[in-house]
Specification:
Strand content: under 5%
Distance between the termini: 61 Å
Helix content: 55-70%
Structural class: mainly alpha
Order of helices and strands: HHHH
Radius of gyration: 24 Å
Oligomer: single chain
Number of helices: 4
Low-confidence stretches: none
Number of strands: 0
Shape: elongated
Length: about 100
Amino acid sequence: MSKFPLRLMPSVRRGAEKFSQREGVSLNQFINVAVAEKLALLQHEEWLALRPKPTRERVSRALAVLDRPAQKAPEPEDRLPEGYVSVRRAKQYKQMVSGK
């Protein structure tokens, strides 16, 4: 790690000190986490802007993967409730997707 002199407005520093104490971490650790969270948010927004946009074909291919039969049965806690019908299997959804 390297040292980096940081100037904060007094009100920002007081707020950061208050919350770092409440969280039970040092001010330095609190600021590190805050900067890391902000970077993660900005990187995610950049990724969203640059990723290939969904197309009807891509969505259809992804849904086809999800429709493949599983290699083994789901664990009991992962099973769907009795009578569950996927929204994609519902008549209204099929009509909406087909444009009819």
